[in-house]
Structures are given as C-alpha cells and as structure tokens.
Amino acid sequence: MLNDYLDIHPEVQAALDNNQPVVALESTIISHGMPYPQNVETALMVSNTVREAGATPATIAIINGRLKVGLSAEEIELLGKAGQSVTKVSRRDIPFVVASAEHGATTVAATMILADMAGVRVFATGGIGGVHRGAQTSFDVSADLQELAQTSVAVVCAGAKSILDLGLTLEYLETHGVPVIGYQTQSLPAFYTRTSDFEVDYCLDSPKQIAQVLKAKQALNLQGGVVIANPIPEQHAMPKQVIDSAIEQALNEADQQGIHGKASTPFLLARVCELTGGDSLDSNIQLVLNNAKLASAIAIEYCA
Ligand code: PSU
Ligand code: MN
Is this entry keyworded Metal-binding (predicted)? Predict the structure, then answer.
C-alpha cells in the first residue's frame, strides 16, 4: 500500500536492509530556506559530508506526487532552481501534493513523517520551526513541534532562530514530552550564535551517549522525536547584536506587511539573509554541514 506512494532510493534501501547508517535531510531548506544557487550547492555538500562521515544521505521531498526518500542530484537541482514556487509541504499538505502529482519541499515535520515511513531514525537540518514571537495572539506555532511530539525521528539542528520565542518553544516541547539534548552544551544554541538565555534539558558529550538514549527510547516504545541541539562552530558564529537587529527589523517588516501562516518563516529567513549581506547565509551553510557530521556520527552509533 505504502509503496504505491513511497519511493525509497535503492542506495538508501540497501543501507536500511543492511542496518547501515542513514541520515535524512529536508528540502524546504533547499526551496524556501536559502537562495539559488547556494541552496543547491549546500544540499549537495551536505550529502557529501554525510557520505564522507560514513553514512548514506537521504534527502526527502515530493517529486511529481511521489514521496521520495533519497533524491538524485538532478532532483535537488530542480527543487533549488524552482525555489519558492515549489509548494512548502508540512503534514497537512502531503495528501494534496500527492493527489495532484506536484512537487513539494518538505519541512522538518513532513520530512520526519517520510523518514519514519522509510525507517530512517536520524535527521539533520539547520533549524526547527517553533513557537513564534507574539504567538499569544497569532497562535503561530510550527507544526514541527507537534510532529516532534508524535513521530520517532531524532532531529539534529543548531537550535532555533530568535525569530522564534525560544522560551515558549521549550515549554511546548516539555509539555509534549520532547527532550532537548545539547551536544556538548548546557545552553540552548540560537542558530547563528552558540548560546541563548535558555538551558537544554540534558547535555551529552558524545554521539555514542546520544545514540544510547535513542535506543533506550525506542526499546521502551516511547513514541516521539528528540531535538539534538548542536552549536554552530565558533569561527562561523555571528555577532549577537548584528543578528539580533536584523531579526528585529525582519519581524517588524513582516508585521507591517501582514505576513502570516506558512509564508512567515520563509519571509523572515530571506529578510535576515538580505539584511546581513551574505554573512548569515555563510553561517547557515556551515552550521548545516556541522549538523550533518554529528547526525552521521549518531546514526553510526545507533546502528552499532
Ligand atoms: N528554520 C531555519 N531554516 C529553515 C526552516 C526553519 O532556520 O529552512 C524551515 C524548515 O523546513 C522548518 C520550516 O521545518 O521552515 C518551519 O516552517 P513553519 O514555521 O512555517 O512551520
Ligand atoms: Mn507557522
């Protein structure tokens, strides 16, 4: 039944069949999270990084209505070039894009769903969605959080951007039983910066320790995801004031222009990128590569 919709790349399927490590990668970051051509270059570099680290990359998207776990370089190029014209697909959007046989770029939430269908347990990305600032009145809470509450995939990210309310995001995750692990850090990383004013739930120092937690969670049949927050490497971090003021300005513009719903995050990401020149994009690329390395190491330990 599932196979009527799902295409697992033969290389990914072979790895899964042989209990070899696989790392899922998302595609909204390609179509909506970065400009062309850096988005395509980054996606290909991330895949290579996973390979070099000894795991198999599985970039996830919807192509012509097919749920794809593992993309070709041509498919990555297609999603990157088409950019914002590709539908941004979260949980609610999946059946529509499938039924109309269109392309879709999967968010963290939708990528987790497809990874879970294929049996991929570790996923690397840049940043997760969360509770937006002003959510008290806008109700803007990313479906990524609800997915983390129910779908058993570990997400390696660089924390969350301060376009979000980091404190409320942590509260939401706590309510839904989603642990937030800091990799070699007590402080919740804030994407462009290594620290924030918030603490993670658990600090673990090695991929092996993290894999042990994932194994215990699975053995105990505790459903739901895990957030693994990996600070951006020091040399690529941004000065806090620079990024904070760009984020403030982007948030004000979004407010003035009435940007809301699924357009909100891509708008803010693009504006922050423009306002910081190329700097935030360079940081963004480096932190994704760093997350791909850690996710690969965790996937390897998870299979050991
Ligand atoms: N944060 C980033 N880069 C991204 C995203 C978030 O720093 O590319 C993308 C991810 O795909 C994430 C999605 O799942 O935005 C969240 O969108 P929303 O807030 O509409 O749920
Ligand atoms: Mn939203």
Answer: yes
Tell the burial category of 254 from Cβ atoms under 10 Å away from its Cβ (0-12, 13-18, 19+): buried
Strands 104-106 and 56-63: antiparallel
Tokens representing 188 are 């919740």
Separation of alpha carbons 199 and 188, rounded Å:
5
Residue 180 β-bridge partners: 227
End-to-end alpha-carbon separation of the chain, Å? 31
**140 Cα nearest atom in ligand 1:** 19
The residues that are catalytic are 26, 161
Residue to mutate (ligand 1; options 62, 265, 268; most atoms within 8 A of CB): 265
Q: Retrieve residue 44's tokens.
A: 């290909």
Residue 274, Cβ density class (10 Å: 0-12 exposed, 13-18 middle, ≥19 buried): middle
- Model pLDDT for residues 97-112, shown as the tens digit of each residue: 999 999 999 999 999 9
pLDDT, tens digit, 9 for 90 and up, residues 151-191: 999 999 999 998 999 999 999 999 999 999 999 999 999 99
CA–CA distance, 78 with 211 (Å, rounded to integer): 34
